[in-house]
Amino acid sequence: MATVTISDVWKYYGKTVAVKELNIEVRDNEFLCLLGPSGCGKSSTLRMLAGLEFISSGDIYFGDTRVNDIPPKDRDIAMVFENYALYPHKTVFENMANPLKLQKMNKVDIAERVEWAAKMLEITELLQRKPVELSGGQKQRTAIGRAIVREPKVFLFDEPIAHLDAKLRSHMRGELKHLQRRLETTTIYVTHDQLEGMTMADRIAVMHEGVLQQLGTPSEIYNHPVNEFVAGFVGEPPMNFVDCYIERQDDAVALVNDSGQMKLLLSDAQSRALAEKSADGVVRLGIRPDDLFVEAGQGHGLDFTAKIFITEPLGGDMLVEAELGDDRLTIKRKIADMGQPGEACGLAFNIEKLHVFDRETGEAFF
Amino acid sequence: MTITESERGIQDPSEYRGVRRIDHAPQIFNNQPARYYLMWLLLPAIILLAGISLYPFVWLIYMSLHEVQLAPGKSDLWAGFDNFSRLFSDKNFARGWLTLFKYSALCLSVEISLGVLVAVILNNSRLEKLFITIFLMPMMMAPVVAGFLYMFLYNGTFGWYFWLLRSLGVLDGGSILGNKFWAMFGVVATDVWQWTPLIALITLAGLKRVPQEQVEANMVDGAGPVRNFFSVALPNLYPFLLIAILLRFMDNFRFIDTILIMTGGGPANATKILPTYLFDVSFKFFELGRGAAIAFTLLLLTILLGLVLTKIFEDPTRKIKSNGGG
Q1: Chain A contact for B319, CB < 8 A?
Q2: Do A134 and A10 share a structural domain?
Q3: Total domains, chain B
Q4: Any domain includes A365
């Protein structure tokens, strides 16, 4: 029930810069995901929001209130920690009641709130247990319960489901998203798992080495990554990258890979985009595994002939790794008999879905 | 230079019997012949230790049931439970217990609260290491030396503490150790001075183990620093405090050095804790039988209290420990 403004925030640990000039505006009731590999500064950012970490410079606002100097207890936030941080000597009920007790709410109201939250999280029958008697998923629900019993301005989640097993994790993704929509509270969620960001967030802020790379909706991030890092980090399996150089033939522009086996004619719009940004010489092409086509055997009618490196069936779909000259590409397709490694296969590109990056800076041309 | 296994040409550690044994050390205990072998190796040490601790214990019981004769040529007289039954009518015995409890309770409560406070203040402070080193000095001192030191500090002629208290107007007449009321505080202060650092040290080690995430979660939940200490740090400190309390209460029940040096139990038995009385009975009155009976009750109650204390603290200890894994 508040906007969160991170304005020009820096964080240093000694001489190490953890967060560089961060500017993010989180809208009211928005689910924002801070996404990035470990050490990218996302957790430091969250901890600064919580007040657990000193802000080296810059300001953080909740609504119109500058919170830099407000201690965590007065910030009206609720946080779920990576390791749940339950109090081992307290029962589930007491754990969840803790924030309300600290607000000096009366016992009847506390019991009512806790039971409401427990019912929502389906842990009513666990209320009298101690954390040591709970499974990972139950501990995590308790931790979330402790966060939702009161109505905080902001929810902060620090990789809350990172330690659950895969099946439970995918279940909890749905639950958390549902919960956030239902509670209508501004939520900031830190994760290194791009899937969590893609599935749950309204907007994603991708961070790398302390710098915000891109802030946008999951579809913007996925379809229009601003640089090579974002393109490579988001999406599973990751995007293929091929080093190319630009070749101009009359009006048309083509990308040719360094070994010369691949030549892609770009569309007019793409050619114009390259010309506008005065890209010349060497670039790096990026293409997602879903935007490549592969067929087995010789008579395939596709643009290029590549060699199967390995195939990985995934049940309904499969991943094919194919070698085109010196480059190896991962392709995702419906499952089929692709033949043995070393055999030839046909390969084609969805030209519309190409991404081209500056080989030096990693900036995207389109 | 050490030679690694691969340099010796041994690829699989199981080929090399010595390594294999070490790798699977716990399994040795499941292996019957090896277990007997270990038993034989341990036996001499077990016998020696049993001899050292059991022999005096058997003697203690023997003496407590006899009227021990010290004069040469006379044999001990069987006394049955007389030595014990006489204790019930011994006023000094009852008073010894009372004084011991008073002394131990005073020492423990001051040492624990002060020790925990010092640890909290020192924790994560820049001067932590320096202060620990300084604080450890009293602990290095023999209790006898500490006794002498404080006796001099309390001395009515040149004692610095005496002068200080007198100047402040706290003490109206007489010396500290000569006053029935002040003598107890005098000996307690000595014990506190010497042993608070131990409590602080143990607590400090405990504070390092308090999960930071719980502290932070509680801060976010809305707790201030004081509240945070009592609701998160303290419960996590229980196992450490248990060790500290057990150590100190058992020390109080057996150390007599400082009191013997400083007051000898006086004035007017004000500081005559049971162990001091025991010393008097055995080595001043030379009633070794009665002394042994007193010692036996002391031992029994120490064990009982130890068990009770462990029981009180056991629950949170177990839960916190087993939660550490998950």
Answers
A1: yes
A2: yes
A3: 1
A4: no
